[in-house]
Amino acid sequence: MNSPDLFGGMTRVYRSKRCKHGNAASNCARCAPHRFCKHKKRRTNCKECGGSNVCTHGKIRGKCMECGGAPAIARAMLSRAKAYARKHGQSHIAYGDLLGLVLPMKCPVFGTPFVQKKTKGSPDPDCASIDKFYPQLGYVNGNVSVISRRANTIKGDSRSEQVLRVALWMHLRQKGLKPSFEEVTNLLNEVYDFLAKT
Known about the structure:
By secondary structure, the protein is an alpha+beta fold. Helix content is 35%, strand content 10%. The chain has 6 helices and 6 strands, in the order ββαααββββααα.
C-alpha cells in the first residue's frame, strides 16, 4: 500500500507476512530452523559459526567500513542524513553526491586519511564524519562536507571568527604569553587584513 511521506510524495509501505508464531515468516526460528544456528542467529550472519556474510573483521560484510571503503562510509552517513531529514521534514543529499565527498578518503582540513577503527569504544578522531556547515539547513547538497571527527569537533557550531580567535589564543599561549582579549582581537584583524590581500 502507499502512504503520503513528509515531502508530499507517496512512499510504498511493505507489510511482511506473519507466521503462526507471530514473527516475520522469513525470520522465525521455529518455522525455518534450518536457517538458524545453535546460537539462535541466522547461519549466514553468525560470527561464532563463521557465516558467509561475516567478513575477516568480524562484521557483516555490507556494514563493514574497512571492507566496504568509501561506499560503506557513504551508506552509513546517508542513513543518518535520512533520519535527520525525516525528523525535521527536510530533504537530504543524494547517495551519489555524498559518495563524491567521501571518495578522496582523507580529511580536507588536516589531510589525514580516514580510518575506520574505534579508540576505546568511541570513533577514532580521524574517522570520517558528515558536517552541516549551516546546521539549520540540514543535510542538503551544498551544505554538507565530509571531514574528520577531530575537525568536526573543533568546528562544532562555531563561527569562523570564533574558531580563529581560539586558534590565535592557543598560538600565543604556546609562546608562553597570556594574551588578553584586545591582543587576540588585534592579531585577528591582522589575519583578516592578510586574507583580504590574498
